[in-house]
Amino acid sequence: MALNIKEDAFVEQFAFEGAENSKPAGIATSQNITGIEVRLSRAFIINNKTPKIGPFPGFSKMYLMLIVVSDTGDALQNLELKGFAKVGDNEDLPVDKTIYFWKQQQVTDKSPSQIHVLASILKSKQNLRDVAKVMSDVKNDPEFASVVSTLKEVVKNASAVTQISDLLFSVAGVFGKFLGKVDDKPILTWVQSFTDINGDFDKLGKTTIGRKNDFAALDLSIIIRDTHREIEFAALQNAVIEELEIAKNGEIS
Asked: How many CB atoms neighbour CB 218 within 10 A?
């Protein structure tokens, strides 16, 4: 049976709770973000689906697949496959890393309006493949080239965001051709979209969100930097502090 990367996957847009409250009155949403970083901050295996029997410790072989798409530069920003040979229950995969990074170099540089991430943990039923060879095979596959070409066109159209997830699943499906014997259903798959229309870039600093099922948990962190808003926010904070000090001194006198 073919790998069904889409079954039971989490597919959603990032909506920050309280994002509007994070912007003090008088400070408008910036159209000029100066830095964005997305990190895969945790990949935790709760149940590796391999029972411990007798002297056998019940380890599993796992793959972690990452696909990142954005509307700045090349559409396909990141394509990764990692293999883990001995994974037990209640174990963190060593994956805390940056999976997307953008920093404004020139004042005229346009910040991303869309970032889309697919992260999937898969259990292998055989020895792990040479991931470098798998990556090479994927990149040379005609279907992969066709999907990436479509992605480049679709990601330019803000109204076509809902098509991105299907295209990400198509890219992941190409991996399935070359991974050998893996479970038909991934341990956990998560597709997450960050967009300016959804307000995902309005909240400065670091925000972490996670998704989990009975077998695994994934955490993504997004860090937003905006020098203009940070300066304005600091100035407003100082003004409030000064007003409080004046009021306090007035009460004392």
From this structure: 27
